[in-house]
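Predict structure. Chain length: 242.
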Amino acid sequence: MKILIPSAKELNLSVKNKPFQALSPETKAIVAAFSDLSLAEIQKAYKIKEDMAAKVQAQWQALQKQNAQTYPAYLLLDGLMYRQFNKESYTQEESQYIHDFLAITSALYGVIPADTPIAPYRLDFQTKGKVQGQSLRKFWQSSFDQAVKNEEIILSLLSSEFEEVFSKDLQQNFYQCVFMEEKEGKRKIHSTISKKARGKMVKELISHKIQSIDEVRKLTFDGFSLQKDESTDKRLVFVKRV
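Prediction complete.
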């Protein structure tokens, strides 16, 4: 079983850093492409102001020189989803579960175990730029597929931005989780609701060291539970009544 989660833009630099880890050939190619951009080109690619572009440029230069500080990915990334479960006090068994089952999808690092040391960076699949003549999504597709193609169970807690990097044939094998809130008989999907619920689910998966879809279906957390009337075999819909 592999649990896929997306990376995040927000970072927590207060966690303990790790030694710099060798970059994969794919990551090296991306670093080479983006570290070569001028300040003006970074501003255009990211659609950001000059002061922020300077920070991004410094991150790329540190990666290129291989002197960037690195941190366990799931502790460094600090988006709303991650804040629901990223803590440094997991048991040895829980930490092993994180390494074995939880994988982060990243526009810079690919599909990696969640505890992999990574450097601070700013890059997603919306960023304009080419690597070896390809868009980031096209550049990564083969590697993303390869990372999970032999997994019997793939549980996707991904946003569409990351899920669509995988080939369509492989996406059909994903078990997708959808989160809704029900109020006054009406159910809705909302970005904030989904991000928080994904993080809460990851916390439960780690805590109970879940390894099967049947166990996932039985989960109840933060008011969410599986709704059979909304769900199908591969689409698991969890609803919270408020």
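Summary: The chain is about 40% helix and 20% strand.
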